[in-house]
Amino acid sequence: METGKVSVSTRMYIGGEWCDAIHGGTLKIENPADESVVAEVAYGGRDDAERAIQAASAAFPAWRAVSTYDRAKILKKTAELMRDRADRIARTLTMEQGKPLIEARTEVLHAADTFEWFAEEGKRAYGRIIPPTNIAKRYLAIKHPVGVVATITPWNFPAALPSRKIAPALAAGCTVVCRPADQTPLTVLEMFECLIEAGIPKGVANLVMGEAIPIADAFFANPAVRKISFTGSTAVGKELIRRSADQVKRLSLELGGHAPLIVFPDADLKQVAQAAVIGKFRNNGQVCIAPSRFYVQEKIAADFTDLVVEITRGLKVGNGLEPGVQVGPMFEARALTKTASLVDDASAKGAKILTGGKPSTQFPKGHWFEPTVIRGVSPEMRIMTDEPFAPVMPLLDFSKIDDVIAAANNTPYGLAAYVFTNDLTVATRMAEGLEAGIIGINDPVPATPQCPFGGMKQSGMGRELGMEGLDAYYETKYVSLGLRDS
Ligand code: NAP
């Protein structure tokens, strides 16, 4: 099908002006479904980032002085505009990222809800009054915005992930410089159009597109940038930790995951199989909290396997803009190569492919992999150790609760985990025993703006969303107030 071009702005937004890259560069944005060019955007580097940092730095004192109530009005208006334009923004998102339109729309609405949540939460940044030991003193803990915040986000959720950084930073009184992933700037450009129309003052929110490393160099070198909020791979996250040392730059890190999904025999198998397939193949498995290791109690393993294979075979694969499509293309060509190599490795080490297992040749262009289910998986296979980020469901059996907790925790990651059971004792033991920052019990899609989101172990540092997600953009300042005698 003909997908055409998008009509959003394609320029950077710095200091309240739409602008081209200083050195005139541009980058073509491709639709992963058919490799057609959907837009050509301004594309710069370090100099553009420096300009944006200066603008954000100059705007900070005035924005910090705006009342939280007035800041909230702009953020709520942004949310309203995003909801009004949800269909259009979702279409842009599908065209640059590939996911089905229905998923894109849900994501845009989640991003709008995130703006609204932080608009309201900003009003509740109370601080504390602490009882003094000396009656001639008063102790206060007050919230102070961190300052200029730089954001770096990946391609897999181009609306949700930037909103989790931009909205709380602005609500807290920080100014921002946003750098979206190379191949998915268009959804963030749509978001900026909403922010601008909602009345965001000049320099408060800036958008820079360009090569990641030179832009990150500017963020790290310039002391005006007080914090970097990053979502991406654990490998790049570790590099940012090392680089942050020189200026003790604040970091929030949302990194990779390898989530277990565990099914106990008392669960409703049909419902769980449906939830497992939806959770696995959402955005083609290219989701940080996607379930990627499926542990099924041995008594029900055969029945569960039959169900998931049948449901997976029935998934409608196609261009995300077509009605009824449940699985779109993968994001890029190298994702196909990586997915194929993980499946080949598992197969060579004894796993059995029950459905799918190879790149799809159904479509003339684009990056397509068949939704895949494999069994007979063992811990040394790469699909169990590398973050897969792929439409592959590896099935494993377990017998006892302690064994499955140990197996689930046997990874450096600790982002999400899923448990399906109707037994309260089992649910509680699992919730307490699993090493993951997000646990869905009978819930395959737990992320929501009002609850904390983030990882344990090598899945990250800090939390987004919830009240913790606002706190990440404040310093706590302690004030001791000595009183005069009399
Ligand atoms: P990535 O390679 O780490 O890239 C993430 C972002 O960082 C992109 O904007 C990328 O730019 C930029 N980048 C790459 N190298 C950089 C460097 N040396 N310095 C500064 N920035 C750099 O991750 P990805 O493969 O694109 O994204 C998938 C990863 O993100 C997965 O590991 C996934 O689990 C994780 N993720 C985590 C969460 C969470 O909330 N925990 C959510 C979503 C995704 P370019 O794209 O332009 O190269």
Structure description:
The strands form 6 sheets. A 7-stranded mixed β-sheet has the order 14-15-16-13-12-18-19, sandwiched between helices. It has a 6-stranded mixed β-sheet with strand order 9-8-7-10-11-21, with helices on both faces. About 50% of the residues are buried. The N and C termini lie far apart (about 80 Å). It is globular and about 80 Å long. The protein has helices spanning about 45-65, 70-85, 85-95, 100-120, 160-170, 185-195, 210-220, 235-245, 270-280, 300-315, 335-350, 380-385, 400-410, 425-435, 465-470; strands at about 10-15, 15-20, 25-30, 35-40, 130, 135-145, 150, 175-180, 205, 225-230, 250-255, 260-265, 290-295, 350-355, 370-375, 390-400, 415, 415-420, 440, 455, 460, 475-480. It has 2 domains: about 10-255 and about 460-480, Aldehyde Dehydrogenase, Chain A, domain 1; about 260-450, 3-Layer(aba) Sandwich (Aldehyde Dehydrogenase, Chain A, domain 2), CATH 3.40.309. Helix 2 packs antiparallel against helix 5, helix 3 (about 85-95) packs across helix 4 (about 100-120) and helix 9 packs across helix 10 (about 300-315). It is α/β, with parallel strands linked by helices and about 475 residues long.
